[in-house]
Amino acid sequence: GDSVTQMEGPVTLSEEAFLTINCTYTATGYPSLFWYVQYPGEGLQLLLKATKADDKGSNKGFEATYRKETTSFHLEKGSVQVSDSAVYFCALITGGFKTIFGAGTRLFVKA
Amino acid sequence: DAGVIQSPRHEVTEMGQEVTLRCKPISGHDYLFWYRQTMMRGLELLIYFNNNVPIDDSGMPEDRFSAKMPNASFSTLKIQPSEPRDSAVYFCASSLQAGVSNIQYFGAGTRLSVL
Q1: Is A40 near chain B, with CB under 8 Å?
Q2: Strands (DSSP E) along B1-115, which ranges?
Q3: CB–CB contact B56 A97 (8 Å)
């Protein structure tokens, strides 16, 4: 079945460091790919998305490119801030109504 | 819009008691989802509704769990009787449409502790 695999956390970085969170997927058909973010004490919210191969989703300085050849959707940010500390979830949908979420990666950013 | 509203935010109960969690989706959204989040199992889809009708409840763990959506603006998730292993954060989410552009909007969650 469809699945999403994320790098295990926690990831701990200093402020202004470069961030990469790896995400790979297995899916039948042509999925749309998403990154959701969960701040402490809150629900998940959409960070960015890409609906077809080679699309780049971006928001708040975060970027991810839909790579069909490597079935990946890695999240990157050039300079993280303390306020980026959260749990990040990679997710996919393949034509149905279910969103398949990864296990989540916790990010800690130190001042 | 106020977003997806869940109540209560926190619930502490004793084993064997009935627990009811409530959700008000975003107005106009046709899909409603209930999730459970734990450290061990991550985010699990329990059930989802389309136009108030339950479509897939295969994620509901046991008969102790039930969910209803009596109208477009209200849904409940009930656990009866509750057990300590039900302790988790329960999220409700809604979305406007289905398919590959489906963006889900989550509530802030209900943290349930069963003692």
Answers
A1: no
A2: 5-7, 10-13, 19-24, 31-38, 42-50, 53-56, 65-71, 74-79, 88-95, 105-106, 110-114
A3: yes
Both tokens of B7, joined, read 């109540």
Most A CBs within 10 A among B47, B104, B105, hence the mutation to make, goes to B104
**Do residue B99 and residue A104 have CB atoms under 8 angstroms apart?**
no
Cα separation, A13 vs A31, in Å, equals: 31
Q: Could B99 and A94 be called an inter-chain contact, meaning their C-beta atoms sit closer than 8 Å?
A: no
β-sheet bridge partners, residue B20: B78
Task: pLDDT tens for chain A, 111 residues: list them.
Answer: 889 999 888 999 999 999 999 999 999 888 999 999 999 989 999 999 999 999 999 999 999 999 999 999 999 999 999 999 999 999 998 866 778 899 999 999 999
Q: Chain B: nearest CA to A81, how far in angstroms?
A: 23
CA atoms within 13 A on the CB side of A24: 6
Q: Is B72 left (phi over 0), alpha (psi -120 to 50) or beta?
A: alpha
Q: What is the pLDDT of residue B34?
A: 97
- Split at pLDDT 50, 70, 90, the class of B26 is very high
B→A interface, C-beta within 8 Å: 4, 31, 42-43, 45, 48, 50, 55-56, 91, 93, 98-109
With contact defined as beta carbons under 8 Å apart, do A57 and A49 qualify?
yes
pLDDT for A1: 84
